[in-house]
Give the backbone structure.
Amino acid sequence: MTQTQARPPAVAGPAVKATPPGQAGDAPAGGDQPVMFAGQRHLLDVDTLSPAEVTSILESAEGMAEVLSRDVRKTPALRGKTVITLFYEASTRTRVSFEQAGKVLGADVINVTADSSSVKKGESLLNTALTLRAMHVDAIVMRHPHSGAPYFVADHVDASVINAGDGTHAHPTQALVDLYTIRRHFGRLSGLRVAIIGDILYSRVVRSDMHGLRKMGAEVVVCGPRTLLPPGFAPGETVPEGLPFQGVRVAASADEAVEGADVVMALRIQSERQSAGHLPDLREYSARWGVNSRRLSLANPGALLMHPGPMNEGIEVSSDVAHGAQSVVEEQVANGVAVRMAVLYALVAGKREIGQ
Ligand code: CP
């Protein structure tokens, strides 16, 4: 498919199982809400979710998208609930979409950043968690540079903890956004071939995406410089049984990865997390691994171009492709609000049913 061809229109997803909240006059969501994360109080990664739970969230997000399309985008579903966004790292998409999601659902949303909190005065993560516990908040949406930090906080609070990105480990809501975006276009995930290109070693998005896509039956092909591949990922081979992400194919070149793909996802080089100079030259990187119009034309007709953002245009993706007809990058951002509404709703409104 050439860059001038239009991407396929989004198809409506299956019927929404969960009644979308926010019909005028709704009572706050209560005990009759479906349990989407059965037995789980937190969302720390997608690896612990069953395919049915993922499907349930994606279907609920369809209902949330309908709420967002209304003239008055406000529902009382989480009225009286308090959501804290606790960000120790920069963010635009994730933080703003969680804030918007919470507010549309009627929750009180309080934003805390490391720079504006007592972290600046040396308060530990444990004492920050205990402080928020004492305030009886309902959900903590947390981003932290250290892998595992949200798991630690989850062990010390009564609130639901949602991982908004921890170090190089996981970014579960970005993965759910990506699954939702793909599913809206193709009507399914199973059997699709998704090529992910770039910094496979340090990207938390790719880790959660690989879990989610494999879980939902998609074929995943990754590629990147050898210095940016995790242990067990050998170019030209499939990750063997017994290793995390078994079954993921590692292509030997970007062209090979893109050939026949239904979705091509470019990843940012996570230079802020790299401990050493993994790349001698960005121009060479762009030529060998960047997604440009020639490379994208090797994908299947109708293939989507995705990027979790923020993009470094001209490095991992060329500007014409990033803003071209096949790009769904802005759709990913828009879908972020609906998906995060579904996650907040499932965890906070459904908490009483989950009973933890
Ligand atoms: N995709 C993503 O996590 O973007 P932000 O860093 O802007 O939240």
In short: The longest strand covers residues 160-166.
